[in-house]
Amino acid sequence: MNKTLWKATEMRRSGKWGFYGFPRCYNYRQGQAYCANDTIQYNNELSWLFNASLALFPSIYLDKDLFPSVVERALRVQGILRESLRVRNMLKESHQCIECQQTRTKPIYAYTRYRYRQEQFYITSDLENTIGQSFDAGLDGVVVWDSSANFENTSDCVSMRDYLAQTLGPYIKTITSFASQCHTQWCSQHGRCVRTAWPPTQHRNYKEDQQNRREFSMYRCVCSKPWSGQHCEHHM
Fold it and tell me: CA 20 to 30 Å from 199, out of 20, 27, 152, 153?
């Protein structure tokens, strides 16, 4: 596995290389918002893999049969994201930027879908549970994935087109718009916004947030080097 990562990095130096689905949490019990202690130990023992990876790629797919309620699905995602953030903080050495030789925090990109394993499209609350929580928790991005098996006929493609136009696309636009405004107005264009109190106590309306400057106060700025300060306003 290490040799695979080394070879991939050698061939595509600007890529963010890592293995899908790691770190794992195995929080399959309803209401389980934390990983078990033996899972945490398991991930600790995989530090060699995480150190060799240029990014972490946890999976936050949702299953309505295992987790019938929106709240249960939110807790499952929180457990996975918590563990991914813990693993990143645990790593002794951040990976080096090959071009600039500058130490950086290892990025995290969560793999998510927009349909349940039962093939129904996500409701908006579960877009918040996955994409929204990934933003609030301070992840670097999400990878929205699906199988080509779901696009085998015209009806499948039309259904996807309608969902993209009416639900998924508008939701992602509200997230990216809020992130851009928070980056510009709250973090002086030199950092990104991370929810101060994550996980949140309730689902939120990001469209309202972007229209209400006071909501920025619910976030803190993670500054890009060489900037610092509460709003990344100081050049070090």
Answer: 20
| Contact yes or no for 133/77 (Cβ under 8 A) | yes
Name the token pair of 49. Answer: 């893999």
Q: Give the integer Cα–Cα distance in Å for 23 and 59.
A: 8
Residue 197's pLDDT band (cuts 50, 70, 90): confident
Q: For residues 6 and 48, what is the distance between their CA atoms, to the nearest angstrom?
A: 13
Q: CA nearest 127: which of 79, 157, 172, 162?
A: 172
Q: Report pLDDT digits (tens) over 75-112.
A: 999 999 999 999 999 985 444 444 443 446 899 999 99
Contact 119, 151 (CB under 8 A): no
Q: Letter for the amino acid at 111?
A: Y
**Can you tell me the distance from the alpha carbon of 30 to that of 76, in angstroms, rounded to the nearest whole number?**
8
Q: What is the model's pTM?
A: 0.88
* Whether the bond into 226 is cis, omega within 30 of 0: yes
The number of beta carbons lying within 10 Å of the beta carbon of residue 112 is 23
Contact 16, 109 (CB under 8 A): yes
Q: CA end-to-end span of the chain, whole Å? A: 39
φ/ψ of 20, rounded to 5, equals: -60, 140
* Contact of 2 with 48, CB cutoff 8 Å: yes
Burial of 186 (0-12, 13-18, 19+ CB in 10 A): buried
